[in-house]
């Protein structure tokens, strides 16, 4: 079973604006609600790939209730810890066409409710129930009140019980979690460049920075590079390079989370149509990268998280080049 933890989940309120100006009332042309936060998105996509996934983390107030109802209505079981005060945040995602026809995306993410030690201890006890068949996915920013080493601590608790752990976060929350030897971390090329002080467009430097994360404890480092695709790196270096299929960006929210879910589902053996003919005898990690790339791109080309069918449709035009 995959247990995803989102410390600060969100109702994602998507607005399409014909135009936007500061300091005046702007009106949207269309709105849509999604149930988000990175781990929630990962659990939703894993469920679409037929995997056993449960969404956990912290919720609060009526927005928290709405989030759980929405996620469960989509068929994803939830096991959130309810906070005594506050409201689960609402993140506003604004999309507006630029003069050249491309899409401008602006996000305003709320700060979210404060999480105290009692709630953290409750979550930790749930993680201590995981076993060697399970995988813990820790995704997204930490909520107010969470210690910077929370992911490191939860990852260590999972490891003590034999569960695999995936960490998708940034900064010190990511580097501290490496001590628990996570199975996978998924920085993007810009986050890696910031950590290493290099240029995000310099593939060799990004691979070296990713290899350093692997040498510091991560089994695999999956580097998402936006429209340029993704790189899969381990302690020896570049394993495979994948090119994202061509398509028009409709929504980048959840694209990275879809990539994580596709990669994990690929390794777990999710067989979308065409696996055998596309990757005869392919190494599992290479197929997983391909499924991850197709999933990330399918979400980027759809108004919200992609369906398994949309991911399947992109697999034949998603190319991965093994590098060792
Ligand atoms: O504020 P965080 O935790 O960094 O990111 C939260 C968020 O932007 O990430 C998801 C997309 O990856 C959205 O569903 C959500 O609103």
Automatic annotation (TrEMBL):
Alphabetical list of SUPFAM superfamilies matching this protein: Ribokinase-like
Q: Which GO terms describe its cellular component?
A: cytosol
Tell me which InterPro entries the record gives: Carboh/pur_kinase_PfkB_CS (IPR002173), PfkB_dom (IPR011611), Ribokinase-like (IPR029056), Tagatose/fructose_Pkinase (IPR017583)
- State if Zinc is listed as a keyword: no
Listed A to Z, the keywords are: ATP-binding, Kinase, Nucleotide-binding, Transferase
Gene3D superfamilies the UniProt entry points to: 3.40.1190.20
Judging by the UniProt lineage, the source's domain of life is: Bacteria
| UniProt domain Carbohydrate kinase PfkB: residue ranges | 15-304
GO MF terms listed in the record are: ATP binding; phosphofructokinase activity
PANTHER family named in the record: 1-PHOSPHOFRUCTOKINASE, 1-PHOSPHOFRUCTOKINASE-RELATED
Tell me the protein family, please.
Belongs to the carbohydrate kinase PfkB family.
Q: What is this protein called?
A: 1-phosphofructokinase family hexose kinase
């Amino acid at each position: 079973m995959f247990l995803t933890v989102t410390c600060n989940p969100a109702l994602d309120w998507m607005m399409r604006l014909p135009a936007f100006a500061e300091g005046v009332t702007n009106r949207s042309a269309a709105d849509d609600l999604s149930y988000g936060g990175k781990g929630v998105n990962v659990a939703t996509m894993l469920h679409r790939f037929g995997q056993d996934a449960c969404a956990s983390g912290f919720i609060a107030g009526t927005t928290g209730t709405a989030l759980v109802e929405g996620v469960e209505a989509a068929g994803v079981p939830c096991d959130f810890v309810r906070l005594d005060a506050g409201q689960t945040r609402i993140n506003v995602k604004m999309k507006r066409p630029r003069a050249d026809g491309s899409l401008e995306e602006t996000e305003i993410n709320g700060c979210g409710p404060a999480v105290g030690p009692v709630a953290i201890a409750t979550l930790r006890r749930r993680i201590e129930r995981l076993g060697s068949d399970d995988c813990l996915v820790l995704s997204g920013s930490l909520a107010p009140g969470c210690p910077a080493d929370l992911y490191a601590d939860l990852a260590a608790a999972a490891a003590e019980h034999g569960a695999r752990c995936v960490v998708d976060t940034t900064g010190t929350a990511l580097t501290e979690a490496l001590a628990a030897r996570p199975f996978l971390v998924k920085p993007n090329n810009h986050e890696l460049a910031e950590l290493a002080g290099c240029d995000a467009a310099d593939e060799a430097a990004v691979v070296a920075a990713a290899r350093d994360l692997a040498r510091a404890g991560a089994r695999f480092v999956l580097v998402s590079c936006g429209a340029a695709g993704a790189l899969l790196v381990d302690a020896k270096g570049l394993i495979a390079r994948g090119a994202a299929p061509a398509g028009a960006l409709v929504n980048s929210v959840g694209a990275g989370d879809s990539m994580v879910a596709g990669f994990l589902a690929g390794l777990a053996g999710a067989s979308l149509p065409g696996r055998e003919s596309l990757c005869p005898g392919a190494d599992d990690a290479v197929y997983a990268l391909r499924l991850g790339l197709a999933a990330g791109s399918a979400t980027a080309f759809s108004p919200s998280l992609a369906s398994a069918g949309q991911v399947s449709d992109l697999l034949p035009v998603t190319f991965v080049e093994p590098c060792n």
